[in-house]
Structures are given as C-alpha cells and as structure tokens.
# Entry
Amino acid sequence: MQRRAVIFQGRVQGVGFRYATREVAETFAVTGWVRNEPDGSVRLEVQGEPAEVAAMLEALQTRMDGYIRETRIEAMVPTPGEAGFGIRR
# Structure
C-alpha cells in the first residue's frame, strides 16, 4: 500500500479538474481526495497498491493533459482505514 501527494499546476481550476479526478479515481482500486488550493493549484492525495496508483495517475494525466503544466509527486505515509475517494473544499 502506498500514498502519494500530487500537486498539479497549470490551468487546473475552473475546468472540472476535481470532478474528472474523482471520475478517474472511481475506475481504480484507490482511495483519497482532491481539492483546489489557494495558489491556483490542485492537490490530490491518492492511496492504493502501487500499480493501481500509477495507473490512476497515468489515466488522469492523459485525460487532463492539456490543462497540466507541472506535476509534483511526493511519497506519504498511508492512512489506515481510509475509504472512498472524494472532493474536498
């Protein structure tokens, strides 16, 4: 099990990015959340088996490629007992 924090920069707010992220996440065996940040970026925290996390991030990158200018990923400690994937405000 792994957890990743991902910061997306570019034209990622006001374009349905969070909703697209939730749709993509729901097709993989992952948990976590996504939210807009005050600096105009979008933060995603995603957790699951390494192959599922990698596939989810690749699918999201493919779907939203025209909006993403930069992606930063960092490893985090997994959150025990987390269920589902949601949008945070």
About this structure: Helices lie at 17-25, 50-63. The mean pLDDT is 97.
